[in-house]
Design goal:
Blueprint: E1 8-16, H1 25-38, E2 48-54, E3 57-66, E4 69-76, E5 81-88, H2 94-104, E6 109-117
Antiparallel strand pairs: 1-5, 1-6, 2-3, 3-4, 4-5
């Protein structure tokens, strides 16, 4: 049954004081695979990773399409931060997603915001 009062979930995770070696293209691709496994999302193709910015605003960004929407990741190499956004029409465990992300990037601090989309 489709619930017209629910469209999806949106989780925004901010990770601080991350391990800088975890911010590479290969690690972002691995993160996408493992995160999808952790929160039981079906990946749609491989993650796309591109490098953006310059100076103090440089880092890799990744986009992983999933069958129910997408996961995007933006890294800040200057301040060792990672920003993960998950949107899915399928419900997922936001606590697992945050905990896994913090552990994967070896973040010392993490905060998040969660929204149900209607």
């Amino acid at each position: 049954m489709i619930d017209k009062n629910f469209w999806g979930q949106s989780l925004h995770i901010n990770l601080h004081e991350c391990d800088n070696t975890k911010l590479s293209e290969d690690n972002l691709k691995e993160f996408c695979k493992l995160l999808c496994d952790e929160i039981k999302m079906q990946r749609y193709g491989e993650a796309m990773v591109e490098r953006f910015g310059s100076g103090k605003l440089v880092g890799n960004s990744a986009l992983q399409f999933i069958h129910t929407s997408n996961i995007s990741i933006h890294t800040d190499e200057f301040f060792n931060r990672v920003f993960v956004d998950i949107f899915s029409c399928k419900k997922f465990d936001r606590y697992k997603a945050k905990s896994f992300s913090k552990k994967f990037f070896c973040a010392k601090k993490a905060n998040s915001r969660f929204l149900n989309r209607f």
